[in-house]
Amino acid sequence: MSTAQSAHLSDTFKLGDVTIHRLGYGAMRLTSKGIWGPPSDHGEAIRVLRRAVALGVDFIDTADSYGPYVNEELIAEALHPYENGLVIATKAGLVRTGPGLDHQWPPVGRPEYLCWRETRFRRDCEANRPSGPWASVP
User: Fold this and answer.
1) Which residue out of 66, 69, 82, 113 is catalytically annotated?
2) Catalytic annotation on 66?
3) Which residues, including other chains, have CB under 8 Å from residue 6's CB and lie 6 or more apart?
4) Given CB 3.0 to 4.6 Å as the disulfide criterion, which of 96, 99, 117, 126 pairs with 34?
5) 39: left (phi over 0), alpha (psi -120 to 50) or beta
6) Using CA atoms, how far apart are residues 133 and 63, in angstroms rounded to an integer?
7) Residue 53, φ and ψ in degrees, nearest 5
């Protein structure tokens, strides 16, 4: 017997003009050890993402530095086509020097980098979704 609770039991709040539930999913640990490279169990990572949405999660937080880029690819693979109301927020501005949290994550706040990253994220999102809100938080 499952004791799973729906994320819809949590309160909601506004993120810009979109209303989301307070219980979201932080996807940082989907990647392999050290937040680097693909997960050791690809199928399980896909199942976790699908289960989160099935339980009512409508906000997923990720970053291009998780993997790097692995998380965003997993999210697209697991959840495309995206449900209406699903918000995926990504962060940019940190680059990776290697696996593990002990490696530095140097900030890159140059406008040209952030604009390039935003353009790439939006292009990838548009290629993988017919409609629905996306939030990009640089």
Assistant:
1) 66
2) yes
3) 55, 56
4) 99
5) beta
6) 17
7) -65, -40
Residues 6+ apart with CB under 8 A from 106: 94, 95, 97
CB burial class (10 A; 0-12, 13-18, 19+) of residue 83?
exposed
Residue of 134 and 128 predicted with greater confidence: 128
Question: Taking Cα atoms as reference points, which of 22, 27, 28, 26 lies closest to residue 5?
Answer: 22
Find the helix packing angle between 70-79 and 111-128, rounded to 10°: 20
Give the whole-angstrom CA distance, residue 129 versus residue 79.
9
Asked whether the beta carbons of 125 and 62 are under 8 A apart, the reply is no
Confidence (pTM): 0.78
For residues 98 and 81, what is the distance between their CA atoms, to the nearest angstrom? 32
Q: Tokens 């998780």 belong to which residue?
A: 66
Backbone angles phi and psi of 125, in degrees to 5: -65, -45
Q: How far is CA 73 from the centre of its chain?
A: 9
* pLDDT, tens digit (0-9, with 9 covering 90-100), for 21-32: 888 999 999 999
